[in-house]
Design a protein that fits this description.
By secondary structure, this protein is of the alpha/beta class. It contains 13 helices and 26 strands. The protein folds into 4 domains: about 70 residues, SH3 type barrels (Roll); about 250 residues, Leucine-rich repeat, LRR (right-handed beta-alpha superhelix) (Alpha-Beta Horseshoe), CATH 3.80.10; about 35 residues, no CATH class; about 90 residues, Ubiquitin-like (UB roll), CATH 3.10.20. The strands form 6 sheets. It has an 11-stranded mixed β-sheet, with no helix packed on it. A 5-stranded mixed β-sheet has the order 23-22-26-24-25, covered by helices on one side. A 4-stranded antiparallel β-sheet has the order 1-2-3-6, with no helix packed on it.
Length: about 525
């Protein structure tokens, strides 16, 4: 609580109020109401009531119009130091100050029966031997008295400090500098202030291998600045930070094997090229980043790129991938063997889901696992043979021929199907009776051309946009959230059908597709916020 915290020092401090975390943005009086108030910005903006103003006076500002509240100081928990949280989590009894054989100690005004001083010593010894500490949601806000952490926990290797009240990277440093063997550190959902200037190397994180910074507010520039202190880091998790990759990590992150950039919604291929030469990057997680295109300019048809030289494992779930050309580009990666790409327009078809899987397998020759399912030899063989048949007619029309001397498929076909000729060499060119008469599943046949109106913004022009009919309402909202810079939760969607002009139809189910809601070509999508 506030008893030992000076009111002049609370701005920027992190607090907990009834289980919700917030940052103090204001401290003072709010006339005409008597007494002292704290103005806080909630981590969860739905918890607040206003934007930091009251009766026309702005006391502080929030990123969200309902992100702020005023609370009394005695309602705010300013947290505890690291060691206090450790003892509360792992040592039920406090060390008695009386005779070591005393069987009753006092904690505050309450008498507590213990099993004796010997038990406390045993617990302290157990704590000194611990290699991991989990303090998630323990209201840790500081390192405490210098030297006490290292004395009590000399062998800690792993620390979970997620969802606590740490306010700055300096607080983290003060804790870590006493953990000489620290290898794994989770700081997720601590809203941290990171240094704005270059850091002097201290060796504080010289053994750190895994660092989790999800939802901490870190920027890419701050990552590179702090990374000079992470000389042996192997895994770095940066999800949900609105990160934009702005520069190449020239002399840092060179030991990283896993990088998670999920839910940073503005990452595109040009940003990815800035990290494309990290020499040891084996696993890259790019779920829900808004990615729709990819092209490796240094590699032609059938060639291999020099980018991402060690990449083996790639996650592309929940993006906007709608073209087979994207999958073709992945074949240029030298070592890729595991791919996950669920919930993309290209992979969301219901009846066509198995066909889509077969086409991905056929297009990516080194792939061993797709969407967490191992690709067995018989599945690969069947997928590649079906792919040969499905596009046999297109191959022949483009100049393909069973006679090698006459086989001259044009560049357009080769660009669309860069592995086709290799598969012909592997299995033999498809015979006339083997090629599929029907057109294979093609995404372009499922695109809807829709008019887009903004009824609340009359100055906005009516637009046209092509969207896959398999796209969920949630995905459509996400698309307009990025376009309009408006939170997804504020976007409302409905549509007008060409068949029923003047009648507005709601789109209530976020998890269902446009097709499910009977949206058809030429209909008008209405977007409000």
């Amino acid at each position: 609580m506030m008893s030992d915290t000076s009111m002049s020092e609370v701005i920027g401090r992190r607090v907990e109020v009834n289980g919700e975390r917030a940052t103090v943005r204001f401290s003072g009086a709010i006339p005409p109401v008597a007494g002292l108030w704290l103005g806080v910005e909630w981590d969860n903006p739905e918890r607040g009531k206003h934007d930091g103003s009251h009766e026309g006076t702005v006391y502080f500002t929030c990123r969200h119009p309902t992100g702020g509240s005023f609370i009394r100081p005695n309602k705010a928990n300013f947290g505890v130091d690291f060691l206090t949280a450790v003892k509360k989590r792992y040592m039920l009894e406090e060390e008695p100050e009386e005779d070591e054989r005393e069987q009753v100690v006092r904690i505050g005004s309450k008498a507590v029966e213990t099993v004796g001083f010997d038990s406390v010593l045993r617990q302290q010894r157990q704590l000194s031997r611990r290699r991991d500490v989990s303090l998630s949601k323990c209201a840790v806000s500081s390192a405490g008295e210098k030297g006490r952490i290292g004395e009590a926990c000399p062998n800690i290797r792993e620390v979970d400090l997620s969802q606590n009240l740490l306010a700055s990277w300096a607080d983290v440093v003060r804790i870590a500098e006493e953990l000489a063997h620290l290898e794994v550190l989770n700081l997720s959902e601590n809203k941290l202030q990171f240094p704005s200037d270059s850091l002097s190397l201290t060796g504080t994180f010289s053994t750190l291998k895994v660092l989790v910074l999800n939802q901490t507010g870190i920027t890419w520039a701050e990552v590179l600045r702090c990374a000079r202190e992470w000389p042996v880091l192997q895994e770095l998790y940066l999800a949900s930070n609105s990160i934009c990759i702005s520069e190449r990590p020239a002399d840092v992150l060179q030991t990283v094997t896993l990088l998670d950039l999920s839910s940073n919604p503005s990452i595109d291929e040009n940003q990815l090229f800035l990290i494309a030469h990290l020499p040891r990057l084996e696993q890259l997680i790019l779920s829900n980043v808004g990615l729709s295109s990819l092209h490796f300019p240094d590699a032609g048809i059938g060639g291999k790129t020099s980018m991402f030289p060690a990449l083996q494992y790639l996650v592309l779930n929940d993006n906007q991938i709608a073209q087979w050309s994207f999958v073709n580009e992945l074949e240029k990666l030298r070592r890729l063997h595991t791919l996950s790409c669920i919930r993309n327009p290209l992979t969301q078809g219901g009846k066509e889901a198995q066909t889509t899987r077969q086409f991905i397998i056929a297009r990516l020759g080194q792939l061993q696992t797709l969407n967490k399912c191992q690709i067995l030899p018989e599945e690969r063989r069947g997928a590649e043979l079906d792919y040969l048949k499905a596009f046999g007619q297109a191959w022949k029309k483009a100049g393909g021929h069973q006679d090698a001397d006459k086989n001259r498929p044009d560049q357009e076909f080769l660009a669309a199907h860069p592995r086709y000729q290799l598969l012909c060499d592997k299995y033999g060119a498809p015979e006339d009776g083997e090629v599929s008469v029907q057109q294979p599943f093609m995404l372009k046949n499922q695109l809807l051309t829709l008019k887009i109106k903004y009824p609340s913004q009359l100055e906005q022009k009516v637009l046209e946009k092509q969207l896959p009919d398999s796209m969920t309402i949630q995905k459509v909202k996400g698309l307009f959230s990025r376009l309009l810079k408006v939170p997804v939760s504020e976007i409302l969607l409905s549509y007008e059908s060409l068949k029923m002009p003047g009648i507005e139809i709601e789109l209530p189910n976020d998890l269902q597709s446009l097709q499910f809601h009977s949206v058809e070509n030429g209909d008008c999508l209405l977007v409000r916020w």
